[in-house]
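About this split. The held-out portion is used to measure sequence recovery: a designer receives only the structure tokens and must propose an amino acid at every position. Recovery is the fraction of positions where the proposal matches the reference. Here is one held-out target exactly as it appears in the evaluation file.
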């Protein structure tokens, strides 16, 4: 299990991947508004998780909530037939980042 400071640092890394996914989906002309909204929520939850990771229990809860948002973003990207490959890959990378972190807390 990671120390709270390590979780906070790792959440910062995950936040960077959610930001990249949001930028990619917003820049993709084929992205549906629903996909962009779901990815935006994923990014918003990443910011929230970083602010609420004060102790081990709240950090774990934040990671679980963020993973759920990541699952939704990944599903939205997979269902969006018009989404470009680079945006889809960015969403998948952000989802993978939070999944990996969840295994460590």
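Reference sequence for scoring:
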């Amino acid at each position: 299990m990671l120390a709270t400071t390590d979780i906070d640092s790792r959440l910062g890394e995950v936040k960077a991947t959610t930001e990249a996914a949001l930028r990619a989906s917003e820049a993709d002309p084929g992205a549906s508004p629903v996909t962009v909204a779901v990815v935006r929520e994923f990014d918003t939850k990443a910011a929230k998780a970083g602010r609420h990771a004060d102790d081990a229990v709240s950090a774990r809860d934040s990671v679980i909530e963020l993973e759920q948002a990541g699952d939704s973003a990944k599903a939205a990207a997979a269902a969006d037939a018009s989404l470009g490959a680079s945006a889809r890959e960015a969403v998948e990378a952000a989802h993978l980042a939070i999944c990996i972190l969840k295994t460590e807390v």
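Annotator remark: Residues 4-27 form the longest helix (24 residues).
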